[in-house]
């Protein structure tokens, strides 16, 4: 039977008095890719950030690998070691080299052996074709290179789940393809479990096992990937795909 990595039940999220997410329910199994799609402001980033404990939630339950997550910050801190996240803004430490950015959490937070992690980091850097930049600083890299490093940094923690929040949104078009190729390989070759927020519809159509289409903080439809792009169930999703020139 498929192993369930994450399950969300009846999740409500408020910013002050205003409700940003309404009764969110879904689950993701090991090796699956879920993409969150929807118009601007529909709550995609809010949802993915909540799944990493970066946003608190008022009601609902999150289960990680079958275990109910206590929504206190300490529990999330521990869990975040198993959940890798990559942001639109890279969030690399500017005063650390590429290698030190990658080594920091596995050695300091996970307490792993530095030499062992360094070897692994070099192999990952090879994979994203950036080994020669191991001693560079983030400011010396292009946006696309920084984003590939941010992915490597998350992978070095050996995550059970990877979250990608619009990771190509700040990149020049020629940089986008290299980053998306790496994410696709993580799915095809490593069978990484991933939740992806993206505005790249062609990419989403290629990678998604399941699409959650959000509007106004609600999941309007949950559909297998191919079916969503061929035959969306709702008029709103069809309009959305049209508006994205898909
Ligand atoms: N920190 C915050 N405080 C108050 N409101 C917020 C905050 N962050 C987001 N919002 C609001 O929550 C709603 C959902 O925002 P969110 O960024 O999750 O949408 P999104 O679907 O990711 O949009 P986009 O595609 O434009 O990134 C929006 O109305 C936004 O203005």
Summarize the helices and strands and which ones pair or pack.
Elements: E1 4-15, E2 18-29, E3 33-37, H1 44-50, E4 59-64, E5 67-68, H2 73-79, E6 83-86, H3 98-109, H4 114-127, H5 143-155, E7 161-165, H6 173-188, E8 194-197, H7 201-207, E9 210-215, E10 218-224, H8 225-230, H9 235-243
Parallel strand pairs: 3-8, 3-9, 6-7, 7-8
Antiparallel strand pairs: 1-2, 1-4, 4-5, 9-10
List keywords for this structure.
single chain, 246 residues, alpha/beta, 6-stranded mixed beta sheet, 4-stranded antiparallel beta sheet, globular, ABC superfamily ATP binding cassette transporter, ABC protein, P-loop_NTPase, nucleotide-binding, ABC-type amino acid transporter activity
Overview of this structure, please?
The protein is of the alpha/beta class and 246 residues long. The protein has one domain (33-56, 83-244): P-loop containing nucleotide triphosphate hydrolases (Rossmann fold, 3-Layer(aba) Sandwich). It has 9 helices and 10 strands. It has helices at 44-50, 73-79, 98-109, 114-127, 143-155, 173-188, 201-207, 225-230, 235-243, and strands at residues 4-15, 18-29, 33-37, 59-64, 67-68, 83-86, 161-165, 194-197, 210-215, 218-224. Strand 4 (59-64) and strand 5 form a beta hairpin. Helix 3 packs parallel to helix 5 (143-155). Residues 15, 20, 38, 40-46 line the site of adenosine-5'-triphosphate (ATP).
């Amino acid at each position: 039977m498929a192993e369930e990595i994450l399950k969300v039940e009846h999740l409500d999220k408020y910013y002050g008095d205003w409700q940003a997410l309404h009764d969110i329910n879904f689950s993701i199994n090991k090796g699956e890719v879920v993409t969150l799609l929807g118009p601007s402001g529909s709550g995609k980033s809010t949802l993915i950030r909540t799944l990493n404990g970066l946003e608190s939630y008022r009601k609902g339950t999150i289960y990680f690998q079958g275990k109910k997550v206590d929504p206190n910050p300490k529990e999330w801190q521990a869990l975040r070691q198993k959940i890798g996240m990559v942001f639109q803004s890279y969030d690399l430490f500017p005063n650390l080299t590429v290698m030190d950015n990658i080594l920091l959490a596995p050695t300091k937070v996970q307490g792993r052996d530095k030499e062992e992690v360094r070897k692994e980091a070099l192999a990952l850097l090879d994979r994203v074709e950036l080994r020669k930049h191991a001693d560079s600083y983030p400011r010396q890299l292009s946006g696309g290179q920084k984003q590939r490093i941010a992915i490597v940094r998350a992978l070095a923690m050996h995550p059970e789940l990877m979250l990608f929040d619009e990771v190509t949104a700040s990149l020049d078009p020629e940089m986008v393809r290299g980053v998306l190729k790496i994410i696709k390989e993580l799915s095809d070759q490593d069978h990484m479990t991933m939740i992806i927020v993206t505005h790249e519809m062609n990419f989403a159509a290629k990678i998604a096992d399941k699409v959650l289409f959000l509007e106004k903080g609600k999941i309007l439809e949950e559909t297998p990937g191919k079916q969503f792009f061929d035959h969306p169930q709702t008029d709103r999703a069809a309009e959305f795909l049209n508006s994205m020139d898909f």
